[in-house]
């Protein structure tokens, strides 16, 4: 895709229909056509769009805004998989918090308050469990790397 298109909508329709979403996203991003990415993202394909934008080193603020604009229509598991492949799960923290505040049934978690000897995290959703695990491993606190006195 080397042509500079004045209107990308026909290309978007064809690529969306035939599964060339990552290629389309790369083309739109490299040609600075971000408004088309924002305006025509199919929620079902949004995880692929996010994955390609991460590969293209798009600014995180743009990606977060895109994720938040689709919100509850976005399939959580594929999005987590795309971000996990690229070690960028923290990007989803705000999105998951928004889902919880909106009362989504896709994300359920309870985090301890720090008054117990150990804080346990109960997570019903695998997507949020991965984010919590990454946070715990990335923290500098020695307590987060110990369980029952054993270093994990």
From TrEMBL:
Matching entries from PANTHER family are given as: CLATHRIN HEAVY CHAIN, CLATHRIN HEAVY CHAIN RELATED
An example Gene Ontology biological process: vesicle-mediated transport
Cite a single Pfam family from the UniProt record: 3Beta_HSD
One example of the protein's molecular function in GO is: oxidoreductase activity, acting on the CH-OH group of donors, NAD or NADP as acceptor
InterPro entries linked: 3Beta_OHSteriod_DH/Estase (IPR002225), Clathrin_H-chain/VPS_repeat (IPR000547)
Tell me the protein's name: 3-beta hydroxysteroid dehydrogenase/isomerase domain-containing protein
Please report the residue spans annotated as repeat (CHCR). 67-152
The source's domain of life comes to Eukaryota
Residues covered by the 3-beta hydroxysteroid dehydrogenase/isomerase domain: 93-144
